[in-house]
Amino acid sequence: MKKTNIIYAAGLALFIGASLASCDDYLSELPDNRTQIDSEDKVVKLLTAAYPSACPIVMAECVSDNIDDMGERYSNYTSRFYDQLYNLQDLTEMDNDGPYFVWSGYYEAIANANQALQAIEEMGGPTTQTLREAMAEALLCRAYSHYMLTYLFCLDYDPATSSTVLGLTYMTEPETTVFPHYERESLQSMYEKIDKDIQTALPMVGDTHLSVPKYHFNSQAAYAFAARFYLAYQKWDLAVRYASECLGSAPETLLRDWDAINAIATPSSLDPQTNEYIDAAANANFLLVTATSNVGYWAGNSLLGNCKYTHDAYLASTEDLTATNIWGGTSLLRYRPKEYSSGTFDRVLVAKMPALMNWADAQHSTYYLMTVYAAFKADLTLLERAEAYILLKEYEKACDDLNLWMHNWTKSNMTLTPENIRSFYNSMSYATWNAPTLKKHLNPSFEIDEEGSIQECMLQCVLNFKRIETLYEGYRWFDLKRYGITVYRRTMNASGTPEEVTDSMLVDDPRRALQLPAEAINAGYTPNPR
Questions:
Q1: What is the pLDDT of residues 251-283, one digit of tens each?
Q2: Contacts within 8 Å (CB) and 24+ apart, 297-300
């Protein structure tokens, strides 16, 4: 591997009809030898490779508060990779769900998006509807991959400090040399460029060039991404605007059909339910991504992979899926969470991501583990809009969205109001590592009202709903960073209750920016402070 070219280590792979070659083989030639993209059809085909081939879910989930250490009796069901990841250590172990493959997967997608943009420019610009839509898709792909990289490998965005906080490298052109040199720019610069790409793309977004829209940045996915980004960018009005563009006038028609999924029998395999969850025909799914990952096993009912660090019954019953919530108990849930418990298995989950095998040879002796996940979905976009409304102090509108989500997830007839939400959350204590509740201290960089206020209690509500909605999808990490929520590392005893706390990640902990891949650091790329 050419260490000086680490950003694009995977990204400069040949595409469209080219056979796979080793990194060294490819990097011995200049990028000019790549397949020429000189037609609308080739541009559109190239964009199928502008989506990440790797999955960030395992990393993001393992460093969040959705996971416990189940103790020594589970020690045979882990690996050094998971040990390091859960314990918030800089990773030295290689894994398909680890930093190097995630980093490379996103930069590969960026490389292909940039190649498509260059090809459109060389063809005279976006002079046709197809090229306009393709240009919008390429810009969104580039912005999305950079955004995801910042949320994994950078600190949270804060307008007061982000001009001096390390970002990464925002790639806007295909490489023209074999051995380029990269410098890290500020996080503020990264966000400004993501903003520019989104604003350039949205007026050109369209679906006519897409043969399988749900696997591309179709119009709904584009606006859902914009809503999520502007929530992170602390531009609440734009988050509301774009979420509303995405959801339309009848968002209830887009939400997931939990009754139908719950009715699907799963005597042994979760595949029937996971296949329904990631069905491209489901209105709830805006953008589906296929990736190499073990997450389908880790977030399922299999003993394969890691069982030592997991979302266990105690955590579920005190903080999210099966805890008594504002609507009541689990008897009101439309979907009954899957609960598994044995001497070496303690996991509570929602069947979401399939465990797929991609066979690498005709004899079926070598395979890659893969999955499909929903990068954007209606239920989460609805809650993101509710959060933006709360931050704008438009509480009645926020309650409309919270009620839609709650009535879709549960059979409750309750109507949420700012007052009963405040009463519910003020009735409980803030969580500690050994006395968990649904409520945690919030320490965002932006200003919110005092603890116990309507705004703070409504934020507790929407963050709790989002945690339930996104379990085992990695998005909890986004909220933990944005709201400065303390993450504890705790070990459970033989009875499945907290035994000890071994570490904690506070609001100012530099580990909230995961360390860059060792390969990038060894190549001279500036590491994150520790």
A1: 999 999 999 999 999 888 999 999 999 999 999
A2: 297/355, 297/369, 298/58, 299/57, 299/61, 299/349, 299/352, 299/353, 299/472, 300/270, 300/274, 300/349, 300/351, 300/353, 300/355
